[in-house]
Amino acid sequence: MRSMQYNNSKGSNCAFVLERVKMVFPVRILLLVCLFLVPASCRHPKVSGVVRELSQAASLATADSFAPGDSVPVTVTSTFDTSSFFTSVPIDSVVFARMSGRSYKDGCPVAVEDLRYLRLLHRDLSGRTLVGEMVANKSIADDLLEIFHALYDAGYPIERMRLIDDYDGDDEASMLDNNTSCFNYRRKAHMSSVSKHAYGEAVDINPLYNPYYRVTPAGARIVEPAAAASYVDRTGDFPYKIERGDLCHRLFLEHGFHWGGSWTRSKDYQHFER
Questions:
Q1: How far apart are the C-alpha atoms of 112 and 104, rounded to whole Å?
Q2: Could you say which residues of the chain have pLDDT below 50?
Q3: Model-wide pTM > 0.85
Q4: Domain spans of the chain?
Q5: 121 sits in which H/E element
């Protein structure tokens, strides 16, 4: 490749250099350029701008190289800006193909244009960093990015975060797998009215360990997921438990959400809605 020289009189050279390097160098080489080669040349502000753009481009390219559910090595999270892993975009045809007939069914009360596809980072109980995904209403998308970024930075454990469409839109199956999710067109549990999840305005966090629970007038005990009966007793000590006043609870309330664990007729410890 022919060498390229920086021309102080032509600011357009910065953009040219940026695009040229993006095309020629893979992400790891970009990183080397940013961290080892360019700092010596950072005396000129335009070159510094190029370095920042290169770093941002490398972070975004790196984030895009990981699929939902992938584990992200510490070497990546300690090198790149993790903000590039927290994104919100309109629903594209690929994501909608996963949703259609599963979470997004005929009669859905919210338009696809009002939903957003979120990519996030979260840590499981062992401390691994994982790539998560979620579909949410655009009205709460930015709040969710802030909340989950803060939870990630604090090491708050969330075991799994995949689209509920990976469970064919089956809420029970998703909860049983302790999967954190948001949008799903369905009714409220044991009721005829539409759930806030149908609008993408509610989130269920670590649902296996934070079940929905109520007692019917006839005295029947309802627990969802059914396998979570032992976690109805909130005095116990167990992983992934949401408690009043913990970081997850505080962050959601600070962003205007209401917690199902505060309800009186039933308890939905996994549930935050707005």
A1: 9
A2: 1-14, 16-18, 20-25, 32, 36, 43, 47, 50-51
A3: no
A4: 12-64, 71-273
A5: strand 115-123
